[in-house]
Structure formats: structure tokens, C-alpha cells
Design goal:
By secondary structure, this protein is α/β, with parallel strands linked by helices. It is built from six helices and eight strands. It has one domain (4-232): Alpha/Beta hydrolase fold, catalytic domain (Rossmann fold, 3-Layer(aba) Sandwich), CATH 3.40.50. An eight-stranded mixed β-sheet has the order 1-2-4-3-5-6-7-8, sandwiched between helices. This is Dienelactone hydrolase family protein.
């Protein structure tokens, strides 16, 4: 499947690119905003968009690092790339990121063939931003994979008004047990929030080709994600 690139105007001026993958056929489809990891809109993110398009969704992955450096497309295969990724993570402004995600959501809702329903799914940094998206935008449903730093952003949890699912890696090196416990205590009783814990799994267990990729855990998480979107974006 071949995707395309669109340009989206930011709400405070400037513009950023987004990768778009569309399902086959002409039937109306919901959209999903795919929120990047710290490696930019790379092949992993484009493959996720293509996978979602194959499942019947219009998938849109915006370049959230454009304010720092547009067009980041790196991997997790070298120290230099990891150093670059962590520098981008440190420089990233989450308030600007949420604004750009909400702008992307609004654009996605009006793309030709979209039903108007829009979900979000994010990974790593994107998992954190998927949580914020549920709390700080009008997204219809949101899913976060191994989000980093959610425990430090629980002050916005009261804004969650639509369904949120979080996939939590029990052995996540970037999210220690006390951070996971804090998130569970704050969100576990919220009927809009579903928490799934993956025993023995480390960060990025669903990143194909990654050091901690686990096919069985990834398959389970992805099936739960698809069921979640099927329910809430119908």
C-alpha cells in the first residue's frame, strides 16, 4: 500500500506535513491520527498507518517535530540516532504537540471519504500524547502504547471525556513500577479508561524490528486496539 503526504496549517502559523494511508474501496471510513515515537515519521510509523488502512481506516501521521526540525525520519539502530531522538524528546513542547494533534484531528475529520469520526493511537512519546489527546482534545477514542511520563501529567486526567485505552509494559525501562502504580491509581477507577498490563514486557514491545519486540504481546495489544476502535469509531 502506498501512502501520500499532505500539508496541514498550524493554528498559530506555519505548516507541517502528515503521512496519509487510505483503505481500499470507496466506502466511508473513520480516521485515526497516528502519533509518532521519538524517531519521527519513520518507516515504523508509515507501516502502522498502512496497517490501519488495511483494517479500513484513514490513517494520518503528523510530523510533530516540525517546530524543532521538520522531516525527522530516523531509526532505533544506532547510538547517533538514539542521541538525536532523545534530544528531540527533550526539546519537544507538549502543548504545541497537542495543538498540532487537534489540528490534525480536525483536518482528518474532513478528508474525503471520512465519516467524521476520528481516533488516535500513539507509541512511546506518542503514547503519552495519546493520553493527553484523550484529556485535551475532542478525539472520539484514543489508544496509547507504553506512554512515557503519563504519571507526571495526571493533572489533566479530569478532562478525559471519551474512551481511552493504555497498553502498559510491566518491565518498561522508561516507566518504573512506582510510575505505573501512580497512573493505575489515578486512572484505574475511571470507567472511560481501560488499562492493559503486559507481564514481562519492556518498552516498545510492539515495535516490529525493535530490540524488545514480542510478536505475541504485539498481536494481543493490536487486536485489542482494533476491537476498541471498531467499538468506538463506528
Amino acid at each position: 500500500m502506498t501512502g501520500s503526504t499532505i500539508t496541514i496549517g498550524a493554528n498559530d502559523g506555519g505548516s507541517f506535513s502528515a503521512y496519509v494511508a487510505r483503505p481500499a474501496g470507496a466506502a466511508p471510513a473513520p480516521a485515526i491520527v497516528v502519533i509518532q515515537e521519538i524517531f519521527g515519521v519513520n518507516q515504523v510509523m508509515r507501516d502502522i498507518c498502512d496497517w490501519l488502512a488495511g483494517e479500513g481506516y484513514i490513517a494520518v501521521c503528523p510530523d510533530l517535530f516540525w517546530r524543532i526540525e521538520p522531516g525527522i525520519d530516523i531509526t532505533d539502530k544506532s547510538k547517533a540516532e538514539w542521541d538525536k531522538a532523545f534530544s528531540l524528546f527533550s526539546a519537544f513542547d507538549r502543548a504545541h504537540g497537542i495543538a498540532d494533534i487537534e489540528t490534525t484531528r480536525a483536518v482528518a475529520a474532513t478528508l474525503p471519504g471520512c465519516t467524521g469520526k476520528v481516533g488516535a493511537v500513539g507509541y512511546c512519546l506518542g503514547g503519552h500524547m495519546a493520553y493527553r489527546t484523550a484529556a485535551q482534545t475532542v478525539i472520539d477514542a484514543s489508544v496509547g502504547y507504553y506512554g512515557v511520563g503519563i504519571n507526571d501529567a495526571l493533572d489533566v486526567a479530569g478532562g478525559i471525556s471519551k474512551p481511552l485505552m493504555l497498553h502498559v509494559a510491566e518491565k518498561d525501562a522508561f516507566v518504573p513500577p512506582e510510575a505505573q502504580a501512580k497512573v493505575a491509581a489515578a486512572l484505574g477507577a475511571n470507567p472511560l479508561v481501560t488499562l492493559h498490563n503486559y507481564a514481562g514486557q519492556d518498552h516498545a514491545f510492539a515495535r516490529e524490528g525493535g530490540e524488545h519486540y514480542d510478536a505475541a504481546a504485539a498481536k494481543l495489544a493490536n487486536s485489542r486496539t482494533l476491537d476498541f476502535f471498531k467499538t468506538h469509531l463506528a
